[in-house]
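Figure 2 data, in text form.
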Amino acid sequence: MTLLISCTTDDYAIQVSDRRLIYPDGSLADDHTNKAIIFKSHLCFSYTGLAVLDNRNTAIWFRDELANASGQTLYDKCVSIARNATRALRQIDAQHRTSHTFLGTGWIKPIPAEEDREYLPIALAISNVLDEYGNKTDEPRPYFVVRGGPFLMHDGLRLDITGQPIAPERRISLERNIRRAIRRGIGPSDIARLMEEEIRHTARINPSVGASLMIVCLPLATVLKDDHSIWMGRPSRTKNTFMYLASDATVDAVDGPAVVLPGGGGSWQVKMRG
């Protein structure tokens, strides 16, 4: 499983996830698997749970579903993905089914059009462990639902955490430290470090979480400029960025984020070399 943290502020959306895969028996499958999917440079999705859906790598499956899903709105596309994910889930033996969530964060044009903002922050989950109110269920269900949507930022921060749990006091501390950084005008790179440190702390005490991380940052400024470029590097106030942080220096080449391009421009997979 994964620990996935999303942070949305008035100015940028950051998502940090580990890259560890675990076999059903708890043994390590891989420590460098990409779980991030960037949609039109406006949203980033990552997942926790199943590594393979419909006999394909889950990130690639989700990328292709997102690129080809029917529906006029992002929500409609997510409903289509939830329906297809449910079909894929039912092909898996019940004993191997597990909790699974795709978590998306970023920016979207508001509907209705009379909303006085050009873009709103959005948080979306496609999950088999959420009830009709968005609360986590005790056990995974045999179907996926879509929860969340655009929201108004009232106090400058939204923090979403899914996957492996963190202690309530650590979540409170993380949120307090991020708020303190925002008040001091500290940029997204240092805020991402707080999120990185939290996942790596959990990795030291929970073998289901890895210390190799993917960080994606999507600033509102690039969305307003309709800038779809994606740069490799630390989170920035002015560029869409991704960065891979390896737990060691032994990895030569790994997959970066899967990307869905705007305007029917197709999709692709970033390759990185150490």
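Caption note: The chain has five helices and 17 strands.
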